[in-house]
Write a structure and sequence with these properties.
The complex is a heterodimer. By secondary structure, chain A is an alpha+beta fold. Chain A is 15% helix and 32% strand. Chain A is built from 3 helices and 10 strands; from the N terminus they run E-E-H-E-E-E-E-E-H-E-E-E-H. In chain B, 23% of the residues lie in helices and 25% in strands. In chain B, strands 8, 9, 10, 11, 12, 13 and 26 form a 7-stranded mixed β-sheet that branches. In chain B, strands 38-39-40-37-31-41 form a 6-stranded mixed β-sheet, sandwiched between helices. Chain B is an alpha+beta fold. Chain B contains 24 helices and 47 strands. The chains are: A alpha+beta, B alpha+beta. Chains A and B meet through strand 6, helix 2 and helix 3 of A and strand 8, strand 10 and helix 16 of B.
């Protein structure tokens, strides 16, 4: 009986069913000593621990806590985000819009994709965690989505990261996104 | 017993089907070696197919070109080394036989059977150990000849320089327990670590995700070749394989070699598909043992086998290793091999027991004797007879001290020698992990004495040999590894309840001195390097009698096999030479990667991310030529702007003209854009900059020079104050990330109440330049642009095209200019709006090269371009921007001293108008020619450009202040060694009084 390894290695990487798509996303980076209070006043949830997030009421909206005085409020569109705080508010709060390039990696074996681009063990990533990590050489944030993973990065890296992820999943790059 | 041969034509040494064979007899393959067709089956390796076809000489040795045959059949030697048109170092023992393969032997001059360099064997006496280091030094003139000769004769194959680039992606993998080796102990360790397949309660001690890796294409290890006909193994084989293959928490990776161990259980695994980088919670090394050869004269002849190699040939590939064998047995395993040979129909002339057969397992001895094989006690092979292959052996009695009595030697006819002299642990990974090994005088093997936390050893590498004990040891290691991995997840520690040496063998499985020297030599210790006993003794005699020195001087263990078959005997020989024990002699550690890995695997997937401006698409439409600038791609110039295809010089000239006389704009989205927020923001900037920033008024900007502690210019930028507790800092594109890191780090170190965020990619920016820039901008902004309301170096917040914007009056290129910062998503619209409103004024984009020219005309330096890793602000002519008389800042102490040194100086120069000779380029040398003698180097050109505005070539050069030239000229050596004279000119070359900053549309029109 010949060993199957000589017919076709059963452990060879198989074509993945994972797919990558770009999400519409708008963010507001809120920071300062008055940030927790201000976020709460806007009716957005305030996670108690850094690197955690809580879902907001709106579709796909959430608040991520980056540090004691830093938050990212995220929604599907800028209109869903609160207006920036007044500049004379005390204690001080600053807010800046974010235009991160955000991708959704979905499919049963999405970890096959991250295994080629990131050293992090995504088995350990639980829902409700905001994970800053290097992926494909880019500093990104990740969070668990219902069917996979969200990956966000500085928009200037968006096109190349998208091209890389698409190459890994075996889908040609779209060539779009230079106006991201 | 007895096994009929297969009748397959062309494969005379193929046995009848074996119960565990790997080959598929329904899938024949044919490949070619030295142009001759070789037939085999799918599942064969190159070596096994050649052996089945009757080939015995499969390679030639590295130095002496001696014929070599199959030996370990397990990648522990490189006797069968081939190359193809495109591949080198193809190991026949483990390379699958496939149609279309066309191979030739490596290191052969002619053919395997007729090697024209075979005479090197007779020249061996003139090539003693270390001769490379001793010969060819004199006369020096002949060294190139020797070098060419050595390069032609030495080496392991030819590289095809017309190669095709190959790279395979690397993968990361994770598991709770990594088990390396799928022999009986490894299989059991994996099963134990994974727990019951039906599932364990959450947090159970034994419910780990297990990754089991195995070098061979199938699991089973020695169960399938050494114990193939062992009734006791049959039941365990079936149980272990079935359970592992069915277990939901065990993943098996075959044809995979763990090639190194790094901190925190980080193990790269070489697979057919590339490198898998495994991070494990715990590691179990069930890596087994490497069979060690006995050392006697001509022990390298084709037909001399390691017993395990012969067993692999028979059980895996159904290949008869020889027809009439003599078995040299130093342990029970030798008797098992004799039994297997008989089972395969090989005539066994005798078993030569190196010790006392009474000390062996009696059932094995009885089986062998019962098959009619004579067993001789206390015997050693003194010499193999036969010039090309084995035709017999000279056998001599062995004395109590291990020496042989050659006077009583007698000859036994045979065509094969199968030797089982002992083992060495495959402990490479354990050594790398920090395990300490010690020689066990009972087992006569190096065994792990201490193991690092989280690393476990089991089975034969751990000195456990009996099958049931190996399985029990695997259970112990698997349990301990699972406990460690799970305790680690909980942040705790686990303690091993059972010591790792609990099941260690109580009888020797290795002969302590399997070495018989011969007066005529040719007793090979290292087959890769053709090293004999005399070579190692000579090295020790010359003073290289430390194991590390011996290794490097003699190269023992440094060949492709990395000492797998040679290190243990080399240690024995050195220990004997020094009359000391094995532990005192020591052993060497094979560094990672201890197993060959393809370069394409190391290359992996290329991650070289480019940052892109939101205007990239527009730049492409405008015909930009892009250039790499740090992580960005930036327009260098626009040769196809407005149609046509202009030259570089023409493009730059036109762009510069527009910036100087009308309006032009450049994308500067690549700048770092830092927000510094909080009451200590000014204090932080004071600490990192040469000028005080806390005194800056709201709405004003100031140049920021950032030195390091040695006073060297590390970065620069522009700081603007938005509010008392809010600064905005732009940093040079190439230094943006480093600036953000430095500010963040210093804020933390000083404990300042300040937040630093880098919005580099979130905010886009353009610089609108030229006397007509205000006119182009005015329709789109609510910011008052009159000079009284918005003077030079002011910062204003407002809107552009309805988007929130920051505007700065900057002077980098020496014209009225507005740096416009808007959200990234707004920039394309802003650009198009300005393009429309500036159309009447001939607005056009300009690129990086034009910007460099414009700033050069203005005498502005580029940090990192006009400066190097040693340049301080005084050398760069920026001493005016250093305020030493204030509170401490980074580099202040060094700058106080540097201010007085003044060893170099950035100076301006210009070529005469109409110069038509060769032009200087950046990095051309400035020469010291004061006395007319051979010129010394006095500096280098840092920037140069052809200025249309000035009508001449201008540049900057960093020049030693001690240079002996005059103050009026610079001698610059340009291409081809031509020296040209340039006039020293004080910078700025253009508009030294800064008048152009206030030239607006009215003046431009006039």
């Amino acid at each position: 009986m010949m060993h199957p390894a000589f017919r076709a290695d059963p452990h060879a990487p198989r074509p993945t069913d994972a797919r990558v798509s770009r999400r519409t996303w708008a963010g507001l980076h809120v920071l300062g000593p008055g940030a927790p209070e201000w976020v709460s006043e806007q009716g957005w949830p305030v996670p108690s621990q850094p690197y955690t997030l809580l879902e907001a009421s709106a579709d796909s909206a959430f608040t991520a806590r980056i540090s004691d005085q830093e938050f990212v409020l995220a929604a599907a569109s800028p209109a869903a985000l609160p207006a920036p705080p007044a500049s004379d508010r005390t204690p001080r709060v600053w807010a800046f819009p974010r235009f991160d390039a955000v991708f959704e990696l979905r499919g049963a074996d999405w970890r096959q994709v991250t295994a080629q681009v990131c050293h992090y063990d995504f088995r350990a990533l639980e829902p409700g965690v905001w994970l800053p990590v290097a992926l494909a050489g880019v500093q990104v944030w990740c969070l668990r989505a219902p069917h996979g993973l969200w990956i966000g990065c500085d928009p200037s890296f968006g096109q190349d990261l998208e091209d890389t992820l698409r190459a890994v999943v075996g889908v040609p790059a779209t060539g779009q996104g230079t106006q991201s | 017993m007895g096994s009929p041969t297969d009748s397959t034509a062309g494969q005379p040494e193929r046995l009848a089907p074996q119960s565990l064979e790997w080959i598929d007899r329904d899938a024949p393959v044919t490949f070619r070696v030295e142009g001759r067709a070789v037939h085999g089956y799918a599942g064969d390796t190159v070596t096994s197919a050649l052996l089945a076809s009757g080939w015995r000489t499969l390679g030639r040795s590295f130095k002496y070109h001696r014929p070599r045959g199959a030996f370990s059949l397990a990648n522990h030697d490189i006797n069968a080394l081939f190359e193809s048109r495109t591949g080198t170092n193809i190991r026949g023992d483990v390379t699958p036989a496939m149609d279309e393969l066309e191979l030739r032997a490596t290191n052969v001059n002619g053919s395997l059977t007729r090697d024209r360099d075979a005479h090197m064997d007779w020249l061996g006496r003139f090539l003693p150990v270390g001769f490379y280091y001793k010969a060819f030094h004199r006369p020096k003139s002949l060294f190139p000849f020797w070098e060419r000769l050595i390069r032609r004769k030495a080496g392991l194959g030819q590289v095809d320089t017309d190669w095709t680039r190959e790279s395979r992606p690397k993968y990361y993998d994770f598991c709770d327990v990594l088990v390396i080796g799928a022999g009986p102990s490894g299989l059991q360790a994996a099963l134990t670590a994974a727990g019951r397949p039906g599932g364990e309660p959450e947090g159970s001690r034994n419910a780990c995700e297990v990754l089991l890796i195995e070098e061979d294409p199938c699991i089973g290890g020695s169960l399938d070749y050494q114990l193939a006909h062992d009734d006791r193994a049959e039941r365990q084989r079936a149980r272990l394989k079935r359970a592992v293959e069915a277990h939901p928490r065990i993943r098996v990776l075959t044809r995979a070699v763990a090639v190194g161990y790094y901190t925190d259980h980080w193990v790269p695994v070489a697979t057919e598909d590339g490198i898998v980088k495994v991070r494990a919670g715990a590691v179990v090394a069930a890596t087994g043992v490497l069979e060690q050869p006995a050392v006697f004269r001509n022990n390298d002849r084709p037909g001399v086998w390691l017993a395990s190699g012969a067993q692999r040939a028979m059980q895996r590939f159904a290949v008869r290793p020889c027809r009439n064998a003599v078995v040299l047995a130093g342990n029970d395993e030798g008797y098992i091999a004799a039994r297997d040979l008989v089972h395969a129909g090989v005539g066994v002339q005798a078993v030569l027991d190196m010790g006392d057969p009474a000390a062996r397992e009696s059932a094995l001895v009885q089986q062998v004797e019962g098959a009619g094989v004579p067993v001789h006690a206390h015997r050693m092979i003194h010499e193999v007879v036969g010039r090309r292959t084995v035709s017999g052996v000279r056998v001599a009695p062995r004395q109590g001290d291990g020496s042989v009595d050659s006077a009583q030697a007698e000859t036994l006819a045979c065509d094969g020698v199968v030797m089982s002299a002992g083992w060495a642990p495959a402990g490479h990974l354990l050594y790398q992990a920090g395990a300490q090994f010690a020689y066990d005088d009972t087992v006569h093997q190096l065994v792990p004495r201490t193991l690092p936390r989280g690393v476990f050893a089991c089975g034969r590498v751990n000195g456990v040999f009996e099958l049931d004990q190996r399985i029990t040891d695997g259970e112990r290691a698997g349990s301990a590894a699972a406990a460690h991995a799970q305790a680690r997840l909980r942040g705790g520690r686990s303690d091993e309840s059972v010591p790792h040496d609990r099941y260690r063998a109580t009888e020797a499985h290795s002969d302590p001195w399997p070495i018989a020297s011969h007066p005529k030599g040719r007793e090979f210790v290292d087959l890769d390097e053709d090293l004999q006993i005399k070579d190692l003794k000579q090295a020790a005699h010359e003073g290289f009698d430390n194991i590390e020195l011996l290794k490097r001087f003699s190269t023992v263990g440094m060949g492709p096999s990395q000492g797998k078959h040679s290190n243990m005997n080399a240690i024995r020989i050195l220990a004997n030479w020094r009359q000391q024990g094995i532990d005192a002699t020591g052993s060497t550690t094979a560094r990672p990667f201890y197993h060959p890995v393809r370069l394409g695997d190391l290359a992996g997937r290329r991650f070289r991310m480019r940052r892109r401006s939101p205007l990239d698409g527009i730049h492409e439409q405008l015909g930009a030529q892009f250039v790499e600038a740090g992580p960005w791609l930036r327009p260098e110039f626009y040769p196809r702007f407005g149609g046509g295809n202009r030259s570089r010089a023409e493009s730059i000239r036109e762009e510069a003209h527009a910036a100087r006389n009308g309006v032009a704009m450049i994308d500067v989205s690549t700048l770092g854009k830092l927000e510094l927020l909080g009451p200590d923001a000014g204090r932080l900037l004071d600490h990192v900059c040469t000028m005080r920033m806390s005194t800056l008024r709201n709405g004003r900007t100031r140049l920021a020079l950032m030195p390091d502690e040695s006073g060297v210019l590390a970065g620069d930028g522009l700081v603007g104050r938005i509010a008392d507790d809010h600064f905005y800092m732009t940093a040079a594109s190439s230094h943006a990330d480093a600036t953000a890191r430095e500010l963040t780090q210093q804020a933390a170190l000083l404990g300042l109440d300040v937040l630093v965020i880098d919005r580099g990619g979130q905010v886009a920016a353009i610089n609108l330049v030229g006397p007509l820039s205000r006119k182009a901008l005015r329709p789109h902004t609510d910011v008052a642009l009159d000079d009284d309301a918005f003077p030079f170096l002011d910062l204003q917040e407002g809107h552009v095209c309805g988007y929130p914007a920051r505007l700065m009056r900057v002077g980098f290129v020496g014209e009225r200019a507005y740096e416009i910062h808007v959200p990234r998503t707004a920039m394309a619209e802003v650009w198009q709006a300005l393009t429309a409103s500036g159309a009447d004024a001939g607005i056009r984009p300009f690129g990086l090269e034009t910007q460099r020219l414009l700033r050069l005309e203005k005498g502005h330096l580029l940090v990192g371009h006009d400066t190097d890793g040693l340049t301080d602000p005084y050398e760069a002519g920026m001493g005016w921007a250093v305020k030493l008389d204030r509170e401490r800042f980074i580099g202040q102490h060094s700058l106080r001293r540097l201010k007085e040194r003044n060893e170099r100086r950035l100076v301006g120069f210009a070529l005469p108008p109409g110069h038509d000779g060769p032009l200087p380029r950046e990095c051309h040398l400035v020469l010291d020619r004061a006395d007319g003698s051979e010129a010394a180097i006095a500096g280098r050109v840092t920037s140069v450009g052809e200025s249309e505005a000035l009508g001449r070539v201008v540049g900057l050069a960093m020049v030693d202040t001690a240079a002996r030239g005059d103050d009026r000229t610079l001698a610059i050596r340009v291409d081809d060694g031509v020296v040209i004279e340039a006039e020293r000119v004080d910078a700025p070359f253009y508009d030294p009084k800064g008048h152009r900053q206030s030239v607006g549309e009215e003046e431009a029109r006039s």
